[in-house]
Amino acid sequence: MSKKYLRFPVPRTAVDSGTTSANGITAGTLTQSGQNFTSTVSVGDIVVDTANNLVRTVLAVTSDTELLVGSTGEGIDTGATFVIYDVDSIVDEIVPVSETLSVVAVSGGATQTAINLSSGVSGFQKITLTHGAGLSTYSVQDEIASRILTFLKTKWHEVDQPANLSVTVGAIAWS
């Protein structure tokens, strides 16, 4: 079996950071009073809103205290902490992957979703779930993927053991 790799762009150099002082969501901006953005930030730099786990690209440096980071509704809220990285400092990190997991709609099956696990050790495993025709295959796919991601992000000390586990997607429940 051939090895698989993931490429992650990783910024290395922070050019500015702070906490926003105004709500920029509606205007698509990031605002911080007392800043000096015109001398530290460039168009194309990467803004990471660490408070809300959002990433934006600087579209324009409109003043020392304001950056355009998106369209209407895509700005950064008041009180959000942020770091701005120099776009030219981004390097690619290549990470080997021995196992991959995918959740996909089964081709030609309006009532089936597959969970595929590929492992360098055990080969390929597939679980196919069949669900009611009244549900969108993509809504089931999205819900399963979301639940798997939530599980993978949960620290073990935060896991509760429910008496019984049930999952509901649309009108269908699994227990």
Task: Write up this protein.
With 175 residues, this protein is mainly beta. The protein folds into two domains: 4-92, Elongation Factor Tu (Ef-tu), domain 3 (Beta Barrel); 98-155 and 164-174, no CATH class. The chain contains two helices and 14 strands. The strands form five sheets. It has a four-stranded antiparallel sheet, with no helix packed on it. It has a three-stranded antiparallel sheet with strand order 3-7-6, with no helix packed on it. A three-stranded antiparallel sheet has the order 10-11-12. The chain starts with a strand and ends with a strand. The model has no long low-confidence stretch (mean pLDDT 79).
Counting structural domains, the number is 2
Give the neighbour order of strands across the main sheet: 2-8-4-5
Quaternary: single chain
Mean pLDDT across every amino acid position = 79
Which CATH architecture of the largest domain? Beta Barrel
* Spatial gap, N to C terminus: 36 Å
The biggest sheet amounts to: 4 strands, antiparallel
Order of helices and strands: EEEHEEEEEEEEEHEE
Classify the secondary structure makeup into a structural class.
mainly beta
Low-confidence stretches: none
- Envelope shape: elongated
Number of helices: 2
Our estimate of the beta-strand percent is 35-45%
Q: State the helical fraction.
A: 10-25%
- CATH domain class of the largest domain: Mainly Beta
Stated plainly, the CATH topology of the largest domain is called Elongation Factor Tu (Ef-tu), domain 3
